[in-house]
Amino acid sequence: MSAPPPNLRRIARLRYRPVTRPDLDECIGMLPPWLGLDPATTQALPRLWEQLVGEPSVITAVIEDLALPAERIQAWGVTMILPKQQVQELRLDDEPQAFLARRIYRSLLDGRFRPMTDREIGLENAAGELTMLILHFSARQFGPESPYGPSLIATANDTYRTFHYGYQVRAIYYETNATDDYAAAGSGFLRRRLSNEADLTALPLELRPAYFGLTREQAWNQVPGPPARNNFEHQPPLFCFSASQRRLLWLALFDESDEALMPVLDVSVHGLKKLWRGIYDRIEDRMPSFFGDAAGSDDGKRGPEKRRQVMAYVRQRLEELRPWTPG
């Protein structure tokens, strides 16, 4: 019997999820060379990332192939929500200098820049003044020649939606390298100039930064469909959950077992039940008809049914999981 075709020998099981600390060694080993990080910055990154995991302004995800015995992580993406001062200093709205991620990492390491807090993000989000910068996206095998084919690109688009939608974004910017610009353009981003672009022509394409961006005004001039353009669709959250409630709901999107959630949230069984009860009470206060026949006590069969309804809702209404603090 002849061997099966290469594409049938193994079925990929791709999934995406938030980055955890045990992922860091593998992720940092995937940093793209075009970032141009100096040895000192590279050496300090593991320590820095230990602090960045879990920061509300650091949006970071991995795509992994569960069918692999090792090196499951196939892609890693990092986006930061930046305060207005940092946006101005980097000149993101104009023509910034290349190697933005490198400068941000250095600023974080020397203390000149700190990640935004949940409240600070909530204020800018509610005011419609929130700015994102995609620091980098890297994959072991990506692009038209990838053995994963379109499935990795499709999973990357799903990941982008889950991790970026639901914010009231003013602008989102993206620095990548010149050989991957097709992916940025295909996602709806527009090419923008770098102030030192002329100095970069000596670099090979795979090491040459390219800068993209999209503002709210530009997005409204695009036909709905591309992920970057759809990022600007937004409505205010209805329930305005607390930070601890939002964190529980966010993590429950990726692993719904209480046994997995309790150690991450650092709560007991009683504490986890209290968080869920608080979520149900807030929903019933603001929308008494939400649970229908499952309304009332959350004990017995009603609790799991309420949870199912809540998770189905927040998967579609991601704004409920984002900080929101009206001024």
Automatic annotation (TrEMBL):
Note the superkingdom of the native organism. Answer: Bacteria
Name-wise, this protein is Uncharacterized protein
